[in-house]
Design a protein that fits this description.
The protein is α+β, with helices and mostly antiparallel strands and 129 residues long. The chain has one domain (3-127). It is built from four helices and four strands; from the N terminus they run H-E-H-E-H-E-E-H. Strands 1-2 form a two-stranded parallel ribbon. Strands 3-4 form a two-stranded antiparallel sheet. The longest helix is centred in the C-terminal third of the chain and has 13 residues, at 115-127.
Length: 129
């Protein structure tokens, strides 16, 4: 299933908390991944708490491919959904997520229907109370 649709349905529609913010980074990986396609895909996550970015140079995926251990020995982060605790700032190095879900292979962190990711995010929001 399309990860963006899962994120919209399981996070943005089910978690109404205004403290939740989503940063969606579109990057070219597949043949048709281009800026125009990314702009069009933004409609998959229309929630106003979501901010969309285009990373045409693949900088973020490369940096996170080095910063976290990705499944199947991958070294480029894409189709991956990081969850950060509140207040995390990007300084000299990228912040390490509290946890993540992905679509890079089948393991315990696979995005699946998104319920694990939703529970992860709800837990992080609860820690802010």
């Amino acid at each position: 299933m399309n990860g963006a649709r899962v994120v919209q349905r399981e996070l943005m529609e089910k978690i109404k908390d205004k403290r939740l913010s989503l940063h969606v980074v579109w990057t070219p990986v597949l043949k048709n991944d281009e800026h125009a396609a990314a702009l069009s895909s933004q409609s998959l996550i229309p929630d106003p708490r979501a901010t969309h970015y285009w990373d045409g140079d693949k900088v973020l995926g490369t940096v996170y491919g080095e910063a976290v251990e990705l499944p199947n020995g991958r070294d480029f982060a894409w189709d991956i959904y990081f969850a950060f605790p509140g207040g995390v700032l990007w300084k000299d190095t990228v912040p390490i997520p509290a946890d993540f879900a992905h679509q890079l292979g089948r393991d315990e962190r696979h995005l699946g229907n998104g319920s694990r990711l939703r529970k992860m995010v709800q837990g992080l929001l609860k820690e802010l109370e």
